[in-house]
Amino acid sequence: MEIKVRNVNPIAVKQIDEIAKEKKISRQEFLKGQIETFALLQLQKDHEAVLENLIDKNIKMMEKCAGAIERMNELIEEMVEHES
Fold it and tell me: Is the pTM of this model over 0.85?
């Protein structure tokens, strides 16, 4: 697929050209890599947000379970004390 970008600041173009030259690649190759990296990073950020949300939900559920276990232990202790 082809992408055209117009009216780019000449200073930015010069900087891009210098970076590409240092890497011994063409401007096109450099920009292609930058665009693809940007797109993949965005995907990764989206996936990380989904995972963080899932982790938060799991933590809340684990806290509820821990609270329920504590209450059950207290009830069991009370029942054992009353039997003694």
Answer: no
Tokens standing for residue 77: 């202790």
* Residue 55 tokens, joined: 């982790």
Determine the Cα–Cα distance for residues 81 and 18; give it in Å rounded to an integer: 80
Q: Are 30 and 19 in contact (CB under 8 A)?
A: yes
What residue numbers bound the domain in which 20 lies? 10-83
pLDDT tens digits for range 9-23: 999 999 999 999 999
Domain assignment present for 37: yes
Q: In whole angstroms, how far apart are CA 54 and each of 45, 49, 50, 58, 60?
A: 14, 9, 6, 6, 10
